[in-house]
Amino acid sequence: GESVGLHLPTLSVQEGDNSIINCAYSNSASDYFIWYKQESGKGPQFIIDIRSNMDKRQGQRVTVLLNKTVKHLSLQIAATQPGDSAVYFCAEFSGGYQKVTFGTGTKLQVIP
Amino acid sequence: ETGVTQSPTHLIKTRGQQVTLRCSSQSGHNTVSWYQQALGQGPQFIFQYYREEENGRGNFPPRFSGLQFPNYSSELNVNALELDDSALYLCASSPDGSSTDTQYFGPGTRLTVL
């Protein structure tokens, strides 16, 4: 498969623990954010999104927090499972998909 | 699976050559976007097509061009290949391209330029 995670920051988490992945975004005008998961050999997969008028959004086992003051986004994964092992990217949008900027990514390794 | 397919999966070219990469979107998805993902980095937006017209472009030179066809297939063409063009090329489709639509990514084509 693809070595998407080569040279990326790595977060190692024990199975069952919670994971927190952080992202600093660059554009204070960005109004929409998405977290993507990318497994080896696959394209990015949508996990959860949040608009700039919110500071928290919850999904199934995942929570995204947005702090516009410091331009910081985080993804929390509860009860991390081996299937969560992947590279995670945040993406910021400042005018639809034509104005998207992806972060550099974090590789999550789940230790069984 | 996302219902978005790309071909070929891997491709090796030499500098100066031209390449065509193909994408088949989900039926009914009028928007396709193309991204370049260098090893160890996030995807970079190349351009987007909506109903066969280009409607947005990232910071890529004109030698990167595209086509979208009525049957929900599309192409990315790169002329005069350079070593730095080596990357994973992703296409993603969505119904109308608005920021509220979920984009579905294909698995990508790995291009190596020697």
- What is the CA-atom radius of gyration of chain B, in angstroms? 13 Å
Q: pLDDT below 50 for ≥5 consecutive residues: which ranges of chain B?
A: none
Number of strands of chain B: 11
* Spatial shape of chain A: globular
Structural class of chain B: mainly beta
List keywords for this structure.
heterodimer; A: 112 residues; mainly beta; four-stranded antiparallel beta sheet; 10 strands; disordered N terminus; B: 114 residues; seven-stranded mixed beta sheet; 0% helix; 51% strand
Topology, element by element:
The complex is a heterodimer of chains A (112) and B (114).
Chain A: E1 10-14, E2 19-24, E3 32-38, E4 45-51, E5 56-58, E6 62-67, E7 72-77, E8 86-93, E9 100-102, E10 106-111
Parallel strand pairs in A: 1-10
Antiparallel strand pairs in A: 2-7, 3-4, 3-8, 5-6, 6-7, 8-9, 8-10
Chain B: E1 5-7, E2 10-13, E3 19-24, E4 31-37, E5 44-50, E6 53-57, E7 64-68, E8 73-78, E9 87-94, E10 104-105, E11 109-113
Parallel strand pairs in B: 2-11
Antiparallel strand pairs in B: 1-3, 3-8, 4-5, 4-9, 5-6, 7-8, 9-10, 9-11
What does this structure look like?
The complex is a heterodimer of chains A (112) and B (114). By secondary structure, chain A is mostly beta strands. Chain A is built from no helices and ten strands. Chain A has strands spanning 10-14, 19-24, 32-38, 45-51, 56-58, 62-67, 72-77, 86-93, 100-102, 106-111. In chain A, the strands form two sheets. In chain A, strands 1, 3, 4, 8, 9 and 10 form a six-stranded mixed β-sheet that branches. A four-stranded antiparallel β-sheet of chain A has the order 2-7-6-5, with no helix packed on it. Residues 1-5 of chain A have low confidence and may be disordered. By secondary structure, chain B is an all-beta fold. Helix content of chain B is 0%, strand content 51%. Chain B starts with a strand and ends with a strand. The A-B interface holds A 2-8, 32, 41-46, 89, 91, 93, 96-105 and B 2, 4, 31, 33, 37, 39-45, 48, 55-58, 88, 90, 92, 94, 97-99, 102-103, 105-108, 110.
